[in-house]
C-alpha cells in the first residue's frame, strides 16, 4: 500500500469510526448473548491490505484509542492488536490471496487469537475470580461474527484504499467475441 | 535494499511493542491520566450522539437476539416476548427510557438509595468489547460531582462502582468484572458474605459466606451489607438490592460455603443508570 496523506487521512477516519462504532454499537448489541468485536477484524483487514507495518501501526493506534476511551491501562489492547495486525500483514507478504474466503477466515482466526490475547494480558495482572468455560463459547461466537463482519470490512476497506493498493489490477469486463454472420 | 527494509520493519515493530509495555507499566493501576481525560473529553459528545443515533438499530438487533432466546420456552414467557416485540419498535425507545427513569425514581422512594447520597443520572455511552472486562462508560463525570468509588445503580439494583472519572465521562466497573467483590447480606436470613463474579457468566454471581451458621434458601434477596469496622468498611452503602439466590442446596452450602446469585440488574443491557454521589464511604 502506498500511503499518501489522503490515504492516511482515510485510514485515520476508518480507525476512529471503527472504535466509536464498536463502543457505541457493537458492544451494546447481542446475538446469542455475545457482542461482536469488529476491532481485530478491522486491524486484520488493514494488515492484509497494507502489509506488516500498516497492520502493526494501525493495531497500536486502534488499541491505544480504545484504551483511552475506556479509561483502561494504556498499552494492553495495543499489544494484542499489534500482534494481530502484524500476523495479518505477514500472511499477506508471504502468501498469495487467491480465495475470497481468506480474509474472513483470517479475521475469524485472529479474532479468536485476539480474545485469547486480551485474556492473557488480563491474566498477566491477575484474575481474582473463577473463569467460566462459557468464555470459550464467547470467544468462538465472536470469531464466527468476525468471519461475516470481517468479510464486509475487508471489502469496504479495499474499496476505500483502492488507489493506494499496489497489486490491484484493473478489472475489466471482457467483451464477448462478435461472430460475423451470426 | 530488501534487508534494510526488513530491518526497519522489525525496528518499528520492536518500538511499538516496547512502547506498549512501557505504557502498560506506567498506567496500570493509576486510574485515569490527563491524556485519557483529554481524549474522552473530545470524544464523549461524539460517542453520546452516536449512541443515541444507533439506539433503534441496537434495539432491533437485541430484539432478534431476545426472539431467539424466547423460542422453545413455555407459555409464561410468551407474554415477555410480546413485550420485547413491542419494545423493538423504534418509537417505543423513548417509552423504555421513561420506564427506566420511573424505576430509578421507585428505587429512591423505596429507601434503597440511602440518605446522604445524591443520585446523578447518566446514560451508558460505551461498553468494553471483550469478555475479560465488564466495564461501561457513562456520560456523567467529575463535572457532575461524580468521584471514584461512587456506587452505581439502576432501576433493578446495584450494577457497580465508578473506577475512573474524567470531565464529562466516567468508567463504571460492573459487579460482573473479575476485579469486583461486594460485601453483602442475605435477607431475611442475615447471613453475611462476599459476592464475586464468574468471568464469562455475567448473570451468575457467587456468594461466599463469611458466617455460615444459618442456611439460605432459593429466592432470598441479597443486598449490600454496608459493613464498617473502624476505619475500614464496604465501599457500598447498606441495603442496595444486588440479586436473589438461585441455587441453594444444603449439601453445596455446607460443603463449599457458597451459593449462586442472579443479579437483579440486567448487566448486559444497561441504558440509564444512577451514580450515588456525596456519600461518606469513599
Task: Provide the fold topology.
The complex is a heterodimer of chains A (182) and B (282).
Chain A: H1 5-24, H2 39-50, H3 52-69, H4 76-94, H5 102-124, E1 130-131, H6 134-160
Chain B: H1 2-27, H2 34-53, H3 55-70, H4 75-88, H5 93-109, E1 118-127, E2 135-138, E3 151-153, E4 158-165, E5 170-174, E6 182-187, E7 191-199, E8 201-209, E9 221-224, E10 228-229, E11 232-233, E12 241-247, H6 250-256, E13 258-263, E14 272-277
Antiparallel strand pairs in B: 1-2, 1-14, 2-5, 3-4, 3-14, 4-5, 6-7, 6-9, 7-8, 8-13, 9-12, 10-11, 12-13
How does this structure look, described?
- Chain A is mainly α and 182 residues long.
- Chain A has one domain: Arp2/3 complex 21 kDa subunit ARPC3 (Orthogonal Bundle).
- The mean pLDDT of chain A is 87.
- Chain B is 35% helix and 29% strand.
- In chain B, the strands form three sheets. Chain B has a six-stranded antiparallel beta barrel with strand order 1-2-5-4-3-14. A six-stranded antiparallel beta barrel of chain B has the order 6-7-8-13-12-9. Chain B has a two-stranded antiparallel sheet with strand order 10-11.
- In chain B, a hairpin with a 7-residue loop joins strand 1 and strand 2.
- In chain B, helix 3 runs antiparallel to helix 4.
- Chain B is globular, with a radius of gyration of 22 Å.
- The model of chain B has no long low-confidence stretch (mean pLDDT 79).
- The chains are: A mainly alpha (182), B alpha+beta (282).
- Chains A and B meet through helix 1, helix 3, helix 4, helix 5 and strand 1 of A and helix 1, helix 2, helix 3, strand 1 and strand 7 of B.
- Strand 1 of chain A pairs parallel with strand 7 of chain B.
